[in-house]
UniProtKB/TrEMBL annotation, chains A, B, C, D, E, F, G, H, I, J:
<dbReference type="InterPro" id="IPR026029">
    <property type="entry name" value="MLI_dom"/>
</dbReference>
<comment type="similarity">
    <text>Belongs to the muconolactone Delta-isomerase family.</text>
</comment>
<dbReference type="InterPro" id="IPR003464">
    <property type="entry name" value="Muconolactone_d_Isoase"/>
</dbReference>
<protein>
    <recommendedName>
        <fullName>Muconolactone Delta-isomerase</fullName>
        <ecNumber>5.3.3.4</ecNumber>
    </recommendedName>
</protein>
<dbReference type="Pfam" id="PF02426">
    <property type="entry name" value="MIase"/>
</dbReference>
<keyword id="KW-0413">Isomerase</keyword>
<comment type="subunit">
    <text>Homodecamer.</text>
</comment>
<keyword id="KW-0058">Aromatic hydrocarbons catabolism</keyword>
<dbReference type="InterPro" id="IPR011008">
    <property type="entry name" value="Dimeric_a/b-barrel"/>
</dbReference>
<comment type="pathway">
    <text>Aromatic compound metabolism; beta-ketoadipate pathway; 5-oxo-4,5-dihydro-2-furylacetate from catechol: step 3/3.</text>
</comment>
<dbReference type="GO" id="GO:0016159">
    <property type="term" value="F:muconolactone delta-isomerase activity"/>
</dbReference>
<feature type="domain" description="Muconolactone isomerase">
    <location>
        <begin position="1"/>
        <end position="89"/>
    </location>
</feature>
<dbReference type="GO" id="GO:0042952">
    <property type="term" value="P:beta-ketoadipate pathway"/>
</dbReference>
């Protein structure tokens, strides 16, 4: 099943530049691991904002939560999730 | 360039069932025409809501507006548009 | 999978009392049919408001949408959907 | 009587990992104690978010407050409470 | 148990002055009946707005809903309900 | 004149447990002093939330401000104030 | 006592031009009567919007409500009221 | 002085296509008259939405209001106005 | 020209009592200097809240910004500004 | 293509005056570099607020993001972006 996930990142102001760099590196590794698995299908930046839009295709809501909550910055993001389904006007057979 | 477009449909309460059916038919034709052109890449339903999430790949913001405003229900929708760009952590080379 | 669905009903002001009564009767039949199927597990009223809170256990987001959009009042409700999953602190094995 | 309780957790950014681990452990013990008592009937995670949805069946609003405010993370959560009652279309005799 | 109920009235624009007068009369009778019963303890106007603040002391959330939904203008109000309980700093023994 | 005051408490995360306990004690003393004066008529807890609902009967808006701003936690609360007046449907002669 | 009142006007779309003109004329007469009484001290337009900002000096919240609710367009406005009091940094002795 | 004005158009659902066409024509004439005067400097469409963003350079807030309120669709728009001034980092001497 | 300015003060939680007292003293001096100049016409407290409502009469938006941004607490306030103009129903010739 | 960008600055409360001054200086240099390039066309201050309104003309959404995210204060701003296109009523041939 397919989810649209929007994430706004709020880096704590007290973090040192080293700590930020460490988190950013681990966030990249974690996110790219899930992209390689094929479950994290799209990862886009919202132009001009510190926000992301993602599309994930997973087995279950539990798997979606496992992926998103594995991100090192998970506790520092405002996250909005939409469960998607087939639109009657969509020509494409598959969801992705 | 790629846009994420979210549309909430608000059918006027005074419309007859015939008028609604007519609009729904024309909306489908219009939307499928743009899907066939390859510009309207994804059209999903938000599960349980009278809302859509779409991803369009267009030449310009003017083209995006031409497509969305050609929908018969355009004046009766609340529409939210996000301009997307490449995310530094994205593995995929292309946006779509 | 389990969804929490919150619905606020907005009856169009132009409807006659007969039309309202007809919709309310059909809404009840429709909702009770889904309750009998076992998919619509809980249906509660929010005390003092014209709003409902429901818990549904379905096969897929598409099935959730089929159920909710089959309600006669679907076009006249503001609907909020949350996809739920297992909480690590939950003692109960099953979701429901 | 039955309440729907939604909690968003906001861990203070200044907390050490030890402090967080300590709170998380005590939160689990506290929540599971109330689940064993039968008063905290459902505890779900919102998929992809650091939020919970719970259903509690209690003797009074005071008892609800005693339970929720006993959680160690109570001061660090945004909490929304809805008092529920029987829906005229509900087939189920009992609320739970 | 005690509830705080805030109601904003939205009279449909299509109603004739007769219809409005009829509803207002019946609303008054209905509300005063519940006040006489002792369950609707306070009914205040918010100064300068078409809104009310009420305090009700009832047996159950179901009784609260029975009272509020018996108001003729119930379908035309935006209603907000808060379930109240004893505050540890309150000197007064009783809630009302 | 009568005011409805809603307060959400936001304890600063950096405060030690001693500092919190000190503030809570002084808050109680301050609030109970005003309750004894008869001006702070009701003080309720919103069930399940770190929020209060109060009803005060005072001589003037200046007196209301003197009372509320004397609370030690005043700078750490989000406060909403509604000025109340007599409702035409109210049976009770007095406001309180 | 002094109140700040903000009003957004929402003329019903079904009104004829004659009906609108009639309401606008009566609104002007009513508002100017209160201005002459000295109680409605300031009446400003928000530049570029169909909204007003007013300052009233009245005897009581009941008097404020009597004035505002006497406006013919009262049921068709979204109204926000703030009760004002003396600021410790204000040099001016009087409120107005 | 310079104002940023954002307008969302809400055409009443009861209007006939002739009435809409008449308003749209007059709206265009009115807006182009002000553009020719040099006071309405920029008029942009928000891509994909029935909304405009405008920049006006006027003599006074009263003149801004005269211009915006002369639009035939003025009563049917949600309008947001921001008063702009020189930014200390701006290189450009003039505002426009 | 006349502006309505609403300010909510958010004192940083980490400030010592000395630092707060110093800022409050300087804020008073600054605000009273502008009041003496005649440009800051009204300064009111919102009863029961840590918020102010002010009316300023200035030469230009730039002057308004110079005044407001000279306040020591400027970076720690949420500020809302409305540009006002003459209302057609206002009897008073002058804005102030 | 043209974007309207609104930025609210939130300086972290823990920053020393030196650190703030350093950021402000670098922010100015960065923003003026982009203004000299011709891509950052307008930079205005919202009168009385710590907010900016900008108009940028760029090659792509990616270029917009490169510019905005190069600002030293980028992680400490709430940013809102609107993609603009030609309005059918605009007389001006070019967007800028």
């Amino acid at each position: 099943m397919v989810f649209l996930v929007e994430m706004d990142v709020n880096i704590p102001e007290s973090w040192s530049e080293e700590k930020i760099a460490d988190y950013v590196t681990r966030e990249k590794e974690c996110s790219q691991g899930w992209q390689k698995s094929g479950k994290w299908v799209y990862l886009w930046r919202v132009a001009g904002q510190y926000s992301n839009v993602s599309v994930l295709e997973v087995e279950s809501p539990d798997e979606l939560h496992k992926i998103i909550s594995s991100l090192p910055l998970f506790p520092y993001m405002t996250i909005n999730v939409k469960s998607l389904c087939k639109h009657p006007n969509a020509l494409r057979e598959a969801m992705i």
